[in-house]
């Protein structure tokens, strides 16, 4: 058996990320031993889901070698402080223990209280939206993971994740905010834009179900094209064509902040269009129109 598969892994936090990652590791033969959570029900559900067990914090800190802290971002430092208090109270040695949180925006510094007690720390983030506690693990095989923190610790955790067949990359902690913003733009912001599309279709008489059916091939084909050809070569539509009359109609439909968002995003598309090799269209009239709405 590979040495990485013998490492005893446990989770503090039994929500969507903890359940999904624990299931993913278990399915690839990693030695996940159990869960600890503020909610006993959640811990029991996670343990049953991964065929592991519920652990007290003391037992988890004693038995586990690699501990994933999969709690909400604003609770990571709180959880680390609670772990430190428990370890001091019961004289549990944290030397050589590895603690890894899964926040996309926070660095390993969120676990400083543990590193000061001799533990190794890092952050691991899967580039994936976890929509469901018990099904999101099915998409984890496709997820790209980023690691940040102590170099030696990163290498160990990277080995564990690579054993599952996932791609990984190391990022600088100083770039964590930019990294997380990239994920938010491609995930959460896209949701906001698709919601606007569905609301506009609803105004045209579409049911929610029909809106989804109508937009699905457009969205899926667009994403596939972008991933295969890149954004610049995938660009189509009225902005790319410098079709100012159509853009004016769009702006007339929208109100308030949505009109400004449209103008700002269209300006980004102009920049993209102008960078295309061989494109000699004159975008200056369109840019003047967009700037009027951006300044409102």
Your description of this structure?
With 296 residues, this protein is of the alpha/beta class. The protein folds into three domains: 3-171, NAD(P)-binding Rossmann-like Domain (Rossmann fold, 3-Layer(aba) Sandwich); 185-225, no CATH class; 230-296, no CATH class. 53% of the residues lie in helices and 12% in strands. The chain has 13 helices and eight strands. The chain has an eight-stranded mixed β-sheet, with helices on both faces. α2 (16-27) runs parallel beside α3 (40-50) and α12 runs antiparallel to α13 (284-294). The longest helix is centred in the middle third of the chain and has 28 residues, at 176-203. It is elongated, with a radius of gyration of 24 Å.
Give a quick precis of the structure.
The protein folds into three domains: 169 residues, Rossmann fold (3-Layer(aba) Sandwich); 41 residues, no CATH class; 67 residues, no CATH class. Helix content is 53%, strand content 12%.
């Amino acid at each position: 058996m590979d040495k990485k598969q013998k490492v005893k892994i446990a989770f503090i936090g039994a929500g969507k990320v903890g359940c999904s990652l624990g299931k993913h590791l278990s399915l690839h033969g990693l030695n996940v031993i159990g869960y600890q959570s503020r909610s006993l029900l959640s811990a029991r559900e996670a343990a049953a889901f991964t065929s592991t067990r519920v652990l007290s914090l003391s037992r988890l800190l004693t038995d586990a070698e690699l501990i994933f802290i999969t709690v909400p971002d604003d609770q990571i430092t709180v959880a680390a402080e609670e772990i430190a208090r428990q370890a001091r109270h019961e004289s549990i040695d944290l030397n050589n223990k590895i603690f890894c949180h899964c926040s996309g925006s926070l660095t390993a510094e969120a676990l400083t209280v543990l590193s000061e007690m001799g533990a190794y720390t890092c952050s691991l983030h899967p580039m994936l939206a976890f929509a469901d506690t018990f099904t999101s693990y099915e998409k984890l095989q496709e997820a790209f993971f980023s690691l940040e923190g102590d170099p030696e610790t990163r290498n160990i955790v990277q080995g564990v994740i690579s054993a599952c067949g996932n791609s990984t990359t190391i990022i600088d902690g100083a770039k964590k905010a930019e990294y997380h913003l990239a994920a938010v733009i491609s995930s959460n912001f896209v949701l906001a834009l698709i919601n606007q599309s569905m609301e506009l279709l609803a105004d045209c008489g579409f049911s929610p179900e029909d809106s989804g059916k109508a937009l699905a091939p457009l969205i899926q084909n667009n994403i596939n094209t972008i991933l295969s050809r890149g954004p610049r070569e995938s660009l189509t539509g009225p902005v790319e064509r410098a079709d100012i009359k159509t853009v004016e109609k769009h702006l007339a439909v929208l109100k308030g902040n949505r009109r400004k968002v449209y103008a700002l995003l269209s300006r980004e598309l102009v920049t993209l269009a102008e960078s295309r090799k061989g494109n000699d269209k004159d975008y200056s009239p369109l840019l003047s129109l967009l700037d009027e709405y951006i300044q409102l």
